[in-house]
Structure formats: structure tokens, C-alpha cells
Amino acid sequence: MDVLVVVDNFIAGTMLPCRRLLDSIEPGTGAVWAKVPDSGKLEVDAAVVAAKRAFAKWSKLTGHERATCLLKAADLLESRLEDFAEAESRDQGKPVHLARTYDVPRAIFNLRHAAHALPHLLTTSTVQAEAGVVSYVLREPAGVVGIICPWTVPLCGFVNRLAPAIMCGNTVVAKPSLLTSVTAFMFCKILQDAGFPAGVVNVVFGSGPSAGELLASHPDLPLLTFGGTTIMSKRIVQTAAPLLKKVSVKAGGNNAAVVFSDCDLERCVATLRRNSFINQGETRLCTSRIFVEESLHDEFLSTFVDAVRELRVGPPSDEGFFMGAIVSKTQLEKIREYINSALEERGTVLCGEGIDVCYVPDANKNGFFMRPTVISGLQADSRCLKEEIAGPVVCVVPFSTEAEAVSLVNKTCLSQGASIWTSNLVVAHRLAHRLKVRKVWTNCWSSSELDAPSEMETDSGKAALAARDDLEFFTLPKTVTTMVLHEEEGEELDFY
């Protein structure tokens, strides 16, 4: 029998047990596999105090000194990759091979990227010859940053916000999702071993309504970054607004693909199948709406459904499955509710939920599994087309003109990205300019590039993810201007 994982809070460099514990359920089995602190005001306040104390010294270190700690953490995480991959899979429900090849390596890359990229951006300068002055801009750390993490990509999402925050000289109080706390807890040991000073990173575990709300409303956290649903993002912003906090929110998406009749159908179907259902369709960049030109619609739909039916769903620990388990019973029920809503709106389920049986071993019979589902026949105002499902559900809808395709994609403000499938690059670029998204892929789909700006300012939230954007968010600018002109002679100083 597996040993129950007991998670501790990480405050001032020390693992601190909590008397109040909450159950964490393993999605693949439906059984309790971890106990997580139910942190409240006492724990959150202690973490903030520790972060404020550590800020005085950490913010004064050079970029090189801070980078040394991040690079050491990256090396340690890399040395423990398999342990983290297995824990991430059990905690979130994703296949272990996905955690091994994407989630943990991406977290390692995030640490190294922040360590190498940000030090070179912390100071800029300009010479104003006509005014006889030289100016330079310092990017100074803002203080204590609150980080509230999503459950979609737990470790990667945590490190993605943590690394630039501390690299810029801030200290942090973080709260992982209650559903997926274990790898963040394991990462606290990495921070200890990497030699991070006590209090630079503090992690409190617990529920959103308790610990999360306390972070959002805490007066000593000038910055807050949040990942989660659109509804919760709005609530976080409303809570933080009276305190004039600088807030970054990264919510779930309802992303689209536009498929024209002249596309490479084989490549298109293969890619859309993967990016629609990877990680059980639970990442913010997964495609959930596919709009297909009428002349290709029937052929695409038949080919796509056949391809989706070939995807294997099963225990996350098994290397042979493309999809694992949905993150929680509540999330599974929410997805099913959307499918029932689609049926009420006269949509047709072509494969997946209610159509194809999901076979799992007896040890996983209480897990939260669902077959990848494709729905057709929905109107543009359908809930499934307008709202975020965050699950393995894709809706396919025909369009007749470019203008109609643009209208369908822009119907919801939840799109973070869109892919365009056509051999006509003139059409592709024309659409890219008209779609209200911040990421557009043409004949491909991929994950975020850390140096590509992708600031979102829609109902999916407002979050800057590129290195320069991280610098803008996690630091405060200070301009220093110096006279370099001889006042008596009226000549510029030779300062070269």
C-alpha cells in the first residue's frame, strides 16, 4: 500500500506542519493519497512576515547571485525529474510520460531562462544630447509577490511565475491549488537544498476561499499573480482592487481552430487531435472549437472522429495511454454537465462520453476518466462554444466565408489562441490580423515561447508571459537623470 503523503507549509525556510488537514484525491484511483494543510490567517500572515524580512537582503543581491540560486534549483530538479514526474501524474491525473517529457523539463527550462535572460534587462540607458543629460532606468523589485497557482500544469505553472518574481529581487508567498499541491511541496525541498535564504520563497497550502482570498486581500502584498478560472479571476481582481494591487490573472481559455478546404488534411487532423486532448484537454491553450469550411466539413468531421476514437485513455501511470484522468470528480461532473447542455441544444455527440465505453483496470474503477468527446450541430450561441469547459470536449462547426469564421472565433472573449489551417498564406495572415486572440499559429500548434509576448486583456485575463513583460510586472521603474553639460562653457562632457 502506498504511503500517504503529508504536505507541510514552507515558511521562513522551514517545513511547518498544520493541525488542520484536507484530503487530496488521486484522480486515477479516486482515493485519498495526500493530506494538505488547511491554511488560514495565522499561516498566511506568518508567511508574509517571513517574506518581508527576507526582502531586505534578497533584493540587494546582484542578479548574478540570485541567478546562482535559480540555476542550482534547476540542476537539482533535473536530477530528481522522475520523482517529480510520477508525483505530478498522480496528483493531476496526466499521463506520467507527459509529465516526464513536458511538465518537469519545462519547469527546469523556466528556471534557467529567468536566470539567464532577466539580469540583462534590469537596466537600460539613453543619452539625450540636446538636453545635455544622460538617463538610465533601474528596474527595482516591488516587494512581496503573492502567487496563486492553477491545477492544470501544477509544477510548471508554479515555477513559471516564481522564477521571474524572485529573479527580479522580490520575495514570494505562493499558494498552489488544493487539488494539486504535492509537487510544489516537493519543490520546497529543492529550494532548501539550492541554498535559498529563509523567507525568500514561502508556500502555504489550502483552499481558495481561505488561503487564496487572504493572499488577494493582504495589505502587505503589492503584487499578485493568479491562475484559474475566469470567474475566480474576476473575483480576485475585485478583491485586490481596493488595495491598488498590481494584478496579473491568467484564466482558462476556449481556443479555436479555423480549417479551410485547401489545408493539408492529414497534418491538420493529426495536430488538432493532439492539441485538443493533450493533458485531458485541461490546459489553457487546448483547442475546444474547430470551425471548418463547409466544402470540407463532412470529410473533416468523419476523419477527425475516427482519429479521436483511436486515442487511448487509461491509468496515468501506464506509458501506453495518451490521456489520463480528469483532475477531480467535481471537474468531471462539470464537463458532463456541458455535454448534457449541448444535447439539450440539439447538438450531436459523435464519439466519447455516452457513446464509447471507457475501460480501465479494477484498481482505477473509481478514478475520474472520460473518453475524448466530439460534438457537432451546435449553434454559435451554444454554451459549449462560448464558455470554458477545461476538459476533453471539442465542438466542430461549419462556416461559409472568412467573415463568418472570424465572427465565430471572436464570438467569445475567452480565446487565448487560434490556429489557422490553409495553404494560402495571404488568407492566413489576413485572418491573423482580424482574430481577437494573442497567439496565432498557422498550420501548426505549439506551447508558449518564453520570449514571445502574449499579454492577454480579454475575459481570459490579463497576464504578461514573456521575459520583458515579466520584468515590467515584477519590478518598478526608477529613472535617474544626470547633467553631463558644462554649465559655464556650454559644452558636453567627454564621458566616453
Characterise this structure:
By secondary structure, the chain is α/β, with parallel strands linked by helices. It contains 15 helices and 20 strands. The strands form five sheets. A seven-stranded mixed β-sheet has the order 15-16-17-14-13-18-19, sandwiched between helices. Helix 3 (81-92) crosses helix 4 (96-117). Residues 452-464 have low confidence and may be disordered. Pfam families: Aldedh (PF00171).
What key phrases describe this protein's structure?
5-stranded parallel sheet, 496 residues, 20 strands, 15 helices, 2 domains, 7-stranded mixed sheet, single chain, Aldehyde Dehydrogenase, Chain A, domain 2, alpha/beta, Aldehyde Dehydrogenase, Chain A, domain 1, globular
C-alpha Rg, in Å?
24 Å
Based on secondary structure, the structural category is alpha/beta
CATH level 4 superfamily of the largest domain = Aldehyde Dehydrogenase, Chain A, domain 1
Distance between the termini: 71 Å
- The name of the CATH architecture of the largest domain is 3-Layer(aba) Sandwich
- Here the CATH topology of the largest domain equals Aldehyde Dehydrogenase, Chain A, domain 1
Biggest sheet overview: 7 strands, mixed
How much strand content do the residues show?
Answer: 15-25%
Shape: globular
DSSP, total strands = 20
InterPro entries: Ald_DH/histidinol_DH, Ald_DH_C, Ald_DH_N, Aldehyde_DH_dom
Domain Aldehyde dehydrogenase: 22-480
Protein name: Aldehyde dehydrogenase domain-containing protein
Organism: Cherax quadricarinatus (Australian red claw crayfish)
